[in-house]
């Protein structure tokens, strides 16, 4: 009796938005074929056999409306099932496995293979490099699979050295379709690059490409990149002392109808408000009349928010979380009674069209706010007299002053973190002056930090603009997300300029807004003040004499209300 040929499983991991016409034809050719008839890019199988099943590992399955995966998992799944139904008619095994987002890890291949194995076989069998072949065209992923000993079929990729493609990749097809415009599915380009079942699916589900267009043109989506240490970021967001302190400044101004938290992160501030409402005795019926909506452009944060929701953090209140850009009216243009914006608006300024984008946001919120509703802002702020020169006395003894400008590659944030932690406050300022806004093409050289080292009465000082002193002091210890933080600008408006901009957009600054607790600059962040003591002192030159100055305010609370029915004479 002839020996039965070995059977192989084909794995296709990735965030691809759809399957292309090339892939459809190529996979139809590969499935059921003898491996001896196939041309492998790397690591051909040592034993001939047949590819009898295919598994699509749909990565970032929990990251809908993200720039890296703008097509939701449910739509990717539905399209792949249409393709799989044809394969199954030929007795080809077919699986679609959802794989959640993972940070950059060296054992990513192991995560993928283990996830697929558990889904397909449970505890009975495991996919490995002896029974599984990789199919894909992304060099970085190919490199990881071939290092693990998997045979590699190159899909659209013809060769690695030199890098050469024999067909267009799904991502490039998507980009070209979006560039063509809303009628792209009726073009020759679509028919030449997409199978009919994908074209028909996209026509039946118009939201798919509509969402992709919105995501692609959104300058804010994905701005919190992998260089940010999310464990620290999440801890800061969820720290009870911080969120209670933030909520204390705004709680009595929240109009409890529809409450929207723009830039909600993990939903901790909204959860704090729920806890407060329960504490003051609102009944379940009263809570049931409130709607809470959290909006954030980072799908990772929204996943954490849903975790809070699943664990019962929002009790009897109707609560929703949306992955989206607060600037996109078609995404978040719903009426609300209160809008909370905490540490978010400086992102709009930094990554959008600066002042214009912020004013557009102020007007959009105003338009969508019910009469007498409130707009509650907590954000970094420029100190008064921001362009005035101040003199910083920085500690040189609390770390090294050597090699402060050492270069690190973009994928070495941990090494940079360790290096920065070893620097003195003085050396860290010098590093800050070099890195601030350097990697943000949205800012010209005039935004850069310029300083002089001056010796006055035998003491060495850094002479620098007050706003740049504030920028440094606000984040001098955020070393584990240094390059991510260095892309952001905090000090574009003073507190009075913020208030004037809100009034220009139609808002009324009133009530307790003149109370220092609510309406003026507040320096309440418990992380900042202790970190300054013994590290930095600030001086001003007055009539030729240096005089010690108060440290700059770095944060503010603003209360604005929509009042349009006033009678004017």
The counted number of beta strands is: 19
Helix content: 25-40%
How large is the radius of gyration?
A: 28 Å
For this entry, what is the oligomeric state of its chains? single chain
Overall pLDDT confidence: 86
Stretches where pLDDT is under 50 for at least 5 consecutive residues are 516-528
Q: In whole angstroms, how far apart are the ends?
A: 103 Å
Structural class by sheet pairing and helices: alpha/beta
Could you tell me the strand content as a percent range? 15-25%
How many helices? The count is: 22
Please give the largest β-sheet: 7 strands, mixed
Sheet with the most strands: spatial strand order: 10-9-8-11-12-19-16
Q: What global shape is seen? A: globular
Relevant terms:
about 575 residues; globular; about 35% helix; 5-stranded parallel sheet; 7-stranded mixed sheet; alpha/beta
What does the secondary structure layout of this molecule look like, with pairings?
Blueprint (H helix, E strand, L loop, with lengths): L5 E9 L6 H10 L18 E11 L13 H16 L4 E7 L8 H14 L10 E4 L3 H9 L3 E3 L3 E3 L4 E2 L4 H11 L7 H6 L2 H9 L2 H10 L13 H9 L1 H9 L9 E5 L5 H12 L4 H4 L3 E6 L2 H12 L7 E6 L5 H4 L3 E7 L2 H7 L2 H14 L1 E12 L8 E6 L18 H9 L3 H11 L15 E6 L2 E7 H10 L6 H4 L9 H10 L3 E2 L18 H5 L3 E7 L2 E5 L5 E7 L8
Parallel strand pairs: 1-2, 1-4, 2-3, 4-5, 8-9, 8-11, 9-10, 11-12
Antiparallel strand pairs: 6-7, 12-19, 13-15, 13-17, 14-15, 16-19, 17-18
Helix pairs in contact: 10-11, 15-16
């Amino acid at each position: 009796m002839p020996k039965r040929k070995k059977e192989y499983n084909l794995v296709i991991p990735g965030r691809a938005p759809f399957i292309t016409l090339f892939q459809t034809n190529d996979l139809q050719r590969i499935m059921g074929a003898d491996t001896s008839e196939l041309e492998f890019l790397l690591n051909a199988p040592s034993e001939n056999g047949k590819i009898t099943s295919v598994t699509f590992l749909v990565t970032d399955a929990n990251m809908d409306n993200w720039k890296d995966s703008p097509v939701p998992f449910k739509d990717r799944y539905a399209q792949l099932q249409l393709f799989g139904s044809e394969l199954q008619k030929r007795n080809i095994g077919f699986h679609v496995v959802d794989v959640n987002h993972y940070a950059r890890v060296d054992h990513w291949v192991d995560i993928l293979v283990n996830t697929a194995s558990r889904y397909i076989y449970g505890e009975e069998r495991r996919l490995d490099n002896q029974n599984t072949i990789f199919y894909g065209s992304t060099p970085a992923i190919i490199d990881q699979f071939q290092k693990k000993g998997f045979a590699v079929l190159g899909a659209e990729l013809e060769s690695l050295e030199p890098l050469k493609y024999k067909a267009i990749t799904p991502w490039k097809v998507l980009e070209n379709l979006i560039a063509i415009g809303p009628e792209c599915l009726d073009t020759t380009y679509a028919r030449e690059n997409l199978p009919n079942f994908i074209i028909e699916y996209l026509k039946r589900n118009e939201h798919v490409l509509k969402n992709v267009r919105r995501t692609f043109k959104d300058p804010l989506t994905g701005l919190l990149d992998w260089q940010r240490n999310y464990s620290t970021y999440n801890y800061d967001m969820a720290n009870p002392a911080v969120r209670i302190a933030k909520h204390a400044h705004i709680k009595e101004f929240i109009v409890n109808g529809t409450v929207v938290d723009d830039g909600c992160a993990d939903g901790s501030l909204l959860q704090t408000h729920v806890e407060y409402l329960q504490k003051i005795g609102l009944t379940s019926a009263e809570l049931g009349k409130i709607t809470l909506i959290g909006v954030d452009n980072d799908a990772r944060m929204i996943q954490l928010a849903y975790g809070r929701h699943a664990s019962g953090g929002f009790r009897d209140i109707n609560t929703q979380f949306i992955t989206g850009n607060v600037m996109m009216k078609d995404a978040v243009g719903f009426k609300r009674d209160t809008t909370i914006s905490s540490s978010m608006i400086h992102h709009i300024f930094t990554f959008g069209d600066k002042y214009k984008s912020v004013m557009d946001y102020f007007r959009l919120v105003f338009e969508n706010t019910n009469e007498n509703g409130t707009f509650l802002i907590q954000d970094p702020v420029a100190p008064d007299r921001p362009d005035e020169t101040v003199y910083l006395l920085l500690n040189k003894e609390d770390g090294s002053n050597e090699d402060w400008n050492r270069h690190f590659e973009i994928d070495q944030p941990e090494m940079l973190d360790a290096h920065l932690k070893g620097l003195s406050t003085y050396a860290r300022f010098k590093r800050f002056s070099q890195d601030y806004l350097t990697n943000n093409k949205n800012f010209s050289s005039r935004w850069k930090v310029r300083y002089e080292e001056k010796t006055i009465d035998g003491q060495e000082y850094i002479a620098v603009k007050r706003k740049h002193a504030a920028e440094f002091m606000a984040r001098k210890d955020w070393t584990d997300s240094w390059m991510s933080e260095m892309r952001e600008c905090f000090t574009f408006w003073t507190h009075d300029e913020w208030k004037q901009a809100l009034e220009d957009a139609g808002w009324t600054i009133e009530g307790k807004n003149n109370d220092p607790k609510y309406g003026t600059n507040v320096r309440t962040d418990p992380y900042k003040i202790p970190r300054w003591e013994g590290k930095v002192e600030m001086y001003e030159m007055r009539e030729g004499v240096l005089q010690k100055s108060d440290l700059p305010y770095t944060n503010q609370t603003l209360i604005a209300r929509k009042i349009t029915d006033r009678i004017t004479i």
